[in-house]
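hi support,

uploading two proteins for the ticket. first:
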Amino acid sequence: MPTPTFDHLAPEKKDRITTALLTEFSQYGLADAQVARIVTAAGIARGAFYKYFADLTDAYQYLYGVALSEIHQAIPSEARNGDLMTDYQAVVQFVDQVSNSRYYRLIQRHFTQNESLVPAPPLAPATMPATAWAAMVLSHATIKEILLAPDQQAAALQRLRTALAALAS
């Protein structure tokens, strides 16, 4: 996560750095990303980068978190209420939001190159009901499948709908 120094930057400078990160991580996988290109694009010193982030992985995780937050915020809360069949609608809306966002290439590259290079997100709590857990896993797998093979979107969504209906019964 970024340092408190980054958190206290002027919004314009923070936006400039975030945009530079987005450009870099949309064009290059984490393994090929370079601090030199980021600092040049952001107009900051190399040392400043390390005052804001521990390393490239830290900067990537920050940006990926920003992307997911922005995309999730655009999905109406009623589509995220935990009902199994509305989970389907949330997936459809998430895919639409990603496809029409400036983060599309970043998230696509996450699944093709970066997912194995960053720490895994926390596991679902053991107290999560089995059906909710299954719906979450199926939803995330469907999103990944659609981003990796957009031409298979209709089939992936139909399979998800069928699976969620089976879970609901």
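and the second one:
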Amino acid sequence: MSGVDGSAALLPEPVDGEAAQRAEALRLKKSHDEEFRVFTEQSYHTVERILRARRWDREAIKDALQEAYLQGRVQWPKIRTYTEPMAWTIATARNKLLKEHDRRQRERAMPPEDLPPEAKPDIADAWEAQETLRTWLQQLPARQAEVFQMSREGFSNQEIARILGLADISVRRYKAAARQHLRQLAEQAGYTDSDNRRRPGGAHGPR
């Protein structure tokens, strides 16, 4: 009887151990869910702006972002350990967009391209300034616009080079070329290089 009683006394321990493991797994999942929610809120619009700089279709960008973040949620236990989870998201979404672009190119020999809207003649507020810059970026070569936008979002030259698969010197050249083109577009729109960004028709602007 004592042997039976002793064996029976040991039975609850594995059950309790399994329950503890399930509880810990649930706690870890909730923690990762919350981490990923915060990461998504903090990174989504930055990643979106970087992708839009390359003039991809908005719906295609939306689909690529959705797929990238869904994939990121599944792999979050691994991605969360990366030094730059956002860099992984950018690269994943870009790859999806490039694959979709290649697929469409194969399906139709001459895909229609959206014409960029004309630059606005006057910058009234910060929002309009952002829209004007976005319009100008759409008129730059795709790689220049992409590199410039990533730089504006705070990525270093080394980070941009690693994410886009470029040499560091190439990143610097793209940024310099982008700045030059943007200055030209600003001058064509009637703005100067001065700090106060005179408007068209100003003291030194076109008459």
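thanks. also noticed: The chain is about 70% helix and 0% strand.
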